[in-house]
Amino acid sequence: MAVLKIAQMGNPILRRVTDPVSKQELSSERLQRLIDDMIETMREYEGVGLAAPQVHVPRQILVIESREKGRYPAESESPLMALVNPVIVERSPERVRGWEGCLSVEGIRGIVPRHERVTVEALDRAGKPVRLELAEYPAVIAQHEIDHLQGILFLDRMEDLRSLTFMREYSRFWSGADDDEEEEEGEGEGSAAQEER
Fold it and tell me: Is the CB of residue 52 less than 8 Å from the CB of residue 38?
């Protein structure tokens, strides 16, 4: 396995709508190695998700994993998943707002509204169809990563750019704030730990 170079905001690959993957192509050694390398890269950079365009590959592949003892201990765990050609087929009307960042938008955070629950249909890495009912933090991660496959960055989903902050200021002013303080200031309802994906 290899750690891959992460594309940064401004690279046109991040704004491109990605191409689907055929079942035949998915079974190739090249794409299976890509999935392994994406997992290795996500873990190396302590992310909770990574989409193929972030590693310069315009294909509909993403990986997700969130561990309790990892970088985001307050958030729900999400087991390792590799999803191919994922589509959100259902969205809850309820929304959550939380801090997000991105390995491709290094050092910046902002408050983003997301659906609290989503249903995702995709292929697993073996080419088998899966249907996932995701809620809370795993749902947020999935929405963030699926956006990457459509050329959308978290900044595009922000309703108010006034919450946009560099990581240093996030650490100083926001990472220790509890939810009550955030709601009073109109800054959101979610956890302050929804960060890099």
Answer: yes
- Domains of the chain, by residue range, sit at 12-184
Residues labelled as active-site residues: 145
- Predicted pLDDT at 78: 80
State pTM to two decimals. 0.86
Pair of tokens at residue 45: 């950079």
Closest CA to 118 of 145, 99, 98: 145
What architecture does CATH give domain 12-184?
A: Alpha-Beta Complex (3.90)
Distance, CA of 192 to CA of 92 (rounded, Å): 21
Q: Which two tokens stand for residue 102?
A: 């991105």
Residues 61-83 have pLDDT tens digits of: 999 998 764 444 455 678 899 99
Cα–Cα distance measured from residue 2 to residue 10, given in angstroms and rounded to the nearest whole number: 24
First to last CA, the chain: 20
Instruction: Assess contact for 92 and 67: CB atoms under 8 A.
Output: no
